[in-house]
Input
Amino acid sequence: ETGVTQTPRHLVMGMTNKKSLKCEQHLGHNAMYWYKQSAKKPLELMFVYNFKEQTENNSVPSRFSPECPNSSHLFLHLHTLQPEDSALYLCASSQLAGASYEQYFGPGTRLTVT
Amino acid sequence: LAKTTQPISMDSYEGQEVNITCSHNNIATNDYITWYQQFPSQGPRFIIQGYKTKVTNEVASLFIPADRKSSTLSLPRVSLSDTAVYYCLVGGVRTGGFKTIFGAGTRLFVKA
Output
């Protein structure tokens, strides 16, 4: 138990569906992240939020829309996804958004797009 | 951005010391080097972090040469439970925001 929870743990959706991934951290951190982990590929940083403000968008397609209503919650809204978007989506948090701060990862959401 | 290169996989036996090297030739001045461990169906877990020279904690050591173009994670006396994927992460602040690059990971398999 890392103090970072993600729901759902598994999600299957069609290309025309709209769904959301939820992440919650109970660590009092101020930074939250979304990562994508595809099979046989390195972890890819998608978005970074620091004190609820988005500070990083790593050229992520607009079909992925993040939302950070407060420092404890992070959402990833999904719409009109493609099969190649199937992956493990990991949420992480750290004290602040910076490389010197240890990141705590959630267990991930396994997404399958059909 | 500092791309990282690690061996794809390594095998070891219980009780041995394992050294995993990560290359990061384009590391920037303010980049830190961090190593994470990941078990199947779990998120990565922090192991150790350093900026230069040597860092040691209760589970590992991290060796960083003066030029910082590589780093070596050292796991003393591995056990079967150390079988996992180990990621080298180089990250820091860039113009335009915070950047983090994970390596492809090294799959360590510890045998009895």
